[in-house]
Amino acid sequence: MCGGSLIANRWVMTAAHCIHGYMDYILKVGGIHVNPASKNAIQVPVRDIVIHQDFRMLTTVENDIALILLQFPVNYSAHIQPVCFPEKRFMVPTDTDCWLTGWGKLKEKDSKEAVPELLQEAELKIIRHEKCNEILKKKLGTRFDLVNKGSVCALSELGKDSCQGDSGGPLVCEFNNTWVQVGIVSWGIGCGRKGYPGVYTEVSLYRDWVIDQMNLASSHDSAGLSALPLCLVLPLGVLVTL
After folding, report:
1. For 96-204, CATH number?
2. Which of 133, 184, 186, 242: CA 20 to 30 A from 19?
3. What distance in Å separates the CA atoms of residue 230 and residue 153, rounded to the nearest whole number?
């Protein structure tokens, strides 16, 4: 199981490492319960999947982002809304309070099947990738960089963290009463280990790639035609809605 975020009425953004070959994927949208029979949830089949062409999981994880084109558009409602996508120049400041949501394991030692019934949330503070590298290199006793540009980290002093099952889900921050997605759950060392930050794909740096893929889909088939939500996040975290 992986998470994702609705960025347009036919497009979902997730982590590339969540995609495994040519499996048949079904997405659930609009519910807060893991049970498919959730009152407000709908299930939507997948039409196509686009994985970033430079996705790598070797010595480091790079370009961990993928897009999913839904078979049909979803109707927006009180329970189904697209998340705001930041401008590519946007850099979320260090120590910004942000929120992670998902149905992943609650503890590192839990079995993969031990997922919560209700959608969970955790408050985390942003750490830029340079500082994140310093922390992880010290913790792991290595001199090699583990977090590259294109990623951002987040940490909770209370031991809150993403875990297996949360991958691909959104890390969002609130600016001027609007929720903006700044990260995609990518990887970490265990789950909730004290002092170990989680690593997230920094979505603002992939805005052009996302728009290019959406435009490419629309050029081949009008089914792909869509647009990112009309909101603008300026470089210092000031949000303007259009």
Report:
1. 2.40.10.10
2. 133
3. 26
